[in-house]
User: Which sequence fits this backbone?
């Protein structure tokens, strides 16, 4: 067993264990952190397959952006874990056959070449100077151009819908109009009032500095 195989099995074990902890951890913040660890392990597996572009994209997009958003949402919301687990046993009869089917498909995919069940020939060796980033770009913008554009339109509609739902007017919350704030002037917001330091006609002892000594009794 060479060094690459050892690294593969280590990363695969980390990925499987962290994925299990994502669905078994009771604390949602811990589950999100375990998901970050699983993404990092998956990026390492991509690196072993010489797919550097996909590995860096996985780290930048999912770990750097999506998971940070998940962590902020989970930490800002008051999530009731016990209430979320109430319907677990209701969906178990449906979820269990789906999980078994996924395990069978994954086992057939991984163990198929060892038992002669693989329907696809092994990929050829990459030539010298081969760039997987260029190959992904060529396939993405030629063969899958229309699905790529359709996915971009769907994401744009989702972004516009999220902004529209967030910025809608609510009666019970205070809203801020940036145009009104920018158009504000000093004359309309600040008024100078002349206030004397003390009322007129009132005389008294001069104010001291707080250092006077108390009167001494006569000897």
Assistant:
């Amino acid at each position: 067993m060479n060094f690459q195989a050892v690294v593969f099995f280590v990363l695969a074990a980390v990925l499987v264990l962290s994925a299990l902890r994502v669905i078994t951890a009771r604390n949602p913040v811990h589950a999100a952190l375990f998901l970050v660890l699983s993404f990092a392990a998956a990026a390492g597996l991509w690196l072993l397959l010489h797919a550097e572009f996909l590995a860096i994209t996985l780290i930048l997009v999912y770990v750097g952006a999506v998971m940070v958003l998940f962590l902020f949402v989970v930490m800002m919301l008051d999530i009731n874990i016990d209430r979320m687990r109430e319907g677990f046993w209701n969906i178990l009869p449906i979820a269990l056959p789906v999980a078994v089917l996924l395990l069978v498909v994954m086992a057939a995919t991984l163990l198929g070449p060892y038992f002669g069940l693989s329907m696809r020939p092994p990929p050829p060796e990459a030539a010298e100077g081969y760039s997987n980033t260029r190959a992904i770009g060529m396939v993405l913008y030629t063969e899958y151009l229309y699905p790529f554009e359709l996915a971009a339109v769907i994401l744009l509609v989702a972004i516009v819908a999220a902004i529209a739902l967030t910025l809608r007017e609510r009666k019970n919350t205070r809203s801020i109009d940036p145009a009104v704030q920018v158009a504000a002037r000093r004359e309309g917001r600040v008024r100078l009032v002349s206030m004397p330091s003390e009322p007129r006609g009132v005389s008294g002892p001069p104010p001291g500095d707080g250092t006077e000594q108390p009167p001494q009794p006569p000897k």
